[in-house]
Amino acid sequence: MSPELGHLAVIAALCLSFFQAVIPMVGSFVGHRSWMRLGHSLALGQFVFLGLAFVCLISVFIQDDFSVAYVANNSNTLLPLHYKVSAVWGAHEGSLLLWTLILAGWSGAIALFSGHMPQTFSARVLSILGFISLGFLLFLLFTSNPFERLLPVSPIEGRDLNPLLQDFGLIVHPPMLYMGYVGSSVPFAFAIAALIGGQFDSAWARWSRPWINTSWVFLTLGISLGSWWAYYELGWGGWWFWDPVENASFMPWLMSTALVHSVAATEKRGVFRSWTLLLAILSFSLSLLGAFLVRSGILTSVHSFANDPERGIFILWFLVIVVGASLLLFAIRSPQMANSTTHRGWSRETILLVNNVLLVTSTATIFIGTLYPLFSDVFQLGKISVGAPYFNFFFVPLMIILMLALGFAGFTRWGSTDVNLLLRRGLFPGLLSFFIALLVPALLTDSSSGSSYSFTAGITLFVSAWVLFMTIEDIYLKSRGSWINAKRFTCSYWGMVIAHIGLAACALGVGMSSSYDEQRDLRMMPGDAVKISDYEFRFGGVNRVDNANFVAFRGEVSVTDKTGMTINLFPEKRNYKAGGQVMTEAAIDASLARDLYVSLGEPLQGEAWAVRLQIKPLVRFIWLGSVLIGFGGLLAAFDKRYRRRKKLLDGQSNRGGLAFE
Amino acid sequence: MHPLRRQRLQIVILIIFAGACASALIIYALGQNANFFYTPTQIEEGQAPKGTLIRAGGMVVEGSVKRDDISLAVEFSVTDGAAILRVRHIGILPDLFAEGEAAIAAGRIDDNNILQATEVLAKHDEKYTPPEVADSMNATYQSRQEAKAELK
Amino acid sequence: MNKFAVFAPLALFLGLSMILFLGLDKDPSILPSALVDKEFPEFDLMALDDEHRQITREELLGDVTLVNVWASWCYACSVEHNMLNKLSDRGVKIVGLNYKDQVEDAMLWLENLGDPFVYSVSDIRGRLGLDLGVYGAPETFLVDAQGIIRYRRVGVIDERVWRNEFRDLYAELLVEAQ
Hints:
The structure holds 3 protein chains of 3 kinds. Chain A has 21 helices and 11 strands. By secondary structure, chain A is an alpha+beta fold. Residues about 300-305 and about 645-660 of chain A have low confidence and may be disordered. Chain B has helices spanning about 5-35, 40-45, 130-150; strands at about 35-40, 55-60, 65, 75-80, 85-90, 100-110, 115-120. Chain B folds into 2 domains: about 1-35; about 35-150, CATH 2.40.50.140. The model of chain B has no long low-confidence stretch (mean pLDDT about 80). Chain B has a 5-stranded mixed beta barrel with strand order 2-4-5-7-6. Chain C is an alpha/beta fold. Chain C has helices spanning about 10-25, 75-90, 105-115, 125-130, 160-175, and strands spanning about 45, 55, 65-70, 95-100, 120-125, 140-145, 150-155. Residues about 30 of chain C have low confidence and may be disordered. Chains in contact: A-B, A-C, B-C. The interface of A and B includes residues 300 and 581 of A.
């Protein structure tokens, strides 16, 4: 398997993508059936070639072929096998190849599962995806070729891989994230195809929904993995920094979430067609923008891949063409007709509209905060960085309002809803949540020393409990208290329920760990002990341990809780020999109730060390909650009604579903 | 006025009002939380506001890092090649913080022109110099060259 | 959506694009002119291959030189390196500035990839790089026979870059030096 083979495979894929971009689209206008069908084979062919290229790149890494520049820069003979493989997507060029492979994968999936859609429509969708592939493959071949060679003289040994990347999290996080990022191109293609063809009815929404939901699930899990990875790997206990690269993935996610809900309304009632189309276009645009921000070096960030303005210019032009053309198309062709149904007052449509507005507003504020430093630099206003407080200032209140609205969502009806009904439904859960919000933080105030009632915790508890109880009430009332009835609910409904509960869990984790987080940076000598909250931390000193490619300073900290149980934690400070990097390996004792997080700071005089000790209550809920959200979305995507072929409607399976969504 | 038209007008007014509120809030929040970067030279010349949260940085002066014996207080100096800024911090310094390397601190300038830092950032990578620091070093070199030219 | 509101997203996007283009423009590798026509800074550094030999600015005088900032940890430098080999074969005098590197790693790198430099100086702490305002590697300075910096390139030099940005100026400076 030579690099040349991989290179040729990419070129072949490029040719196929060109034809895929052109032929089916033309065919859809002239009515040439075989041309339209060609899109399917071309998409699958692209996937095969890019798969081949990817396998070539992997094998080049495994073989330690340092004549390939990308391998020389990112791998090393001493690297364990699984990290050699993950090094393939650890830097710009290889991750770009992964991106194009995943795009080909999604296109191939469309090719296989679009039998129930009209041919003109699926042909156009594939053409649009082909155009996007074309852009990325051109970018790859002309500015970021992973198969470039260092000839005639090539190095015998490569550079060491950044130790931050030698980790499980970095094996799974990028592929998962890219599945989501790239996946947002599918709803985008559906939207553009709809705008071209002039069809935006509920049939269109029904075809799009499973794809929208699935790509959203991947993005959810990808972001969640990234946050969890940062938490345990970066060594300081943080899990979200409002870093430009994090924001670049979060903004598409927020828009996708709005899209997931908006398209539901479009499918059921034919409303929000313009919203849905615009959200689909914007989600993908933000995805592309994110790629631009990360890879052009325009924003200084801890994460940036490349610092090459030539690449930046290419992506920017691609971005301008794709997004500019889509927004223009939207402006010209978006549905001009009035909605087929009307809605008043506190209907389900209104609640979903509120949802859309809140999510779009959040995205807009994050967007402004992320790009403001650039704006300021360009217009000579000074070199600025925007801190986390700005982002939290907007995001937290908006999310609180959203969760309050969410509670009511299950009880709203399409068309119109009796406000009094909503208030009645909300009364008991509201009181219960209020009671919990009042009581729990008050109880917790006693055990910590000198602290006062935490309003943040109170609000968190209120909204999380509110969402949970309202959801449970909804299930109870809809099933009329009977478990047998409940089992007949559709996957769509259960998916929604699980995802919403996941959100409540996530919010609970965020709020509680922020309110009750205990962190101490201390100077400790061996034998020193300190009491934080209900735990006693005893420092046992630091030993030096030599490893193959790093020197570790291994500390010992034993933690005793109030029942007398002791556990031992071994945080490390690692100095990597080859690249000179320093890594802080935190020691974590994880449980649902709290994480104990211990990390070594720096060596001080004598045997003393600066040590960071943290107690983080309920922090696991953040990631468990987000996994639930993802799982809920997946469940909803695989609802029977999307998998149904052209068979007659099954009366039984329909009954539980349609009325409730 | 026709009721439908009135409703439309109401919606438009509502949107404009909401937009204005949102803009005002954003401008306010950005203003509060946008942290400007100042070079040691600018701070020495008094260009930086005292008491406001700012960022400043430069190369850590060799031999300037002094740690307290009992607490986690540390003091060091950074330079942009022309002026020196003293920085005080209580806490753990980042992993790649070292003398002779670039560092950025966020905090407030006190009356003695010392930066009381709440946060210290060093580069995250062996070969990364924050552009702000590199730019200020560049500017210093340029002015030194100009001064030399004037002396000739 | 009414007739004009639909154009709003497009208008906002075009505004954003302009800002992004301007932002890219500000990137140092496109406007590296701060040091042009200034003297190359004074320095006194060890030669890479000979620890007993010190090299100063004096050695740059008398010839038109390319000073190339490189390091063994720099991926882009390995991509650029073959171009430098070709240039040195064509007779261009290239001096290496080994930036923030280890001597053993640097020597090994040159052994593997070839040595186009008449000599390299070892700037382990990066002092000279600092005086030059170096952002990273690779960067290349075109220095004339009087020791004045006449051009600076941030980023890799390939055939196209050489032809468009260096070649003519280099030829001019050679003539000047006679």
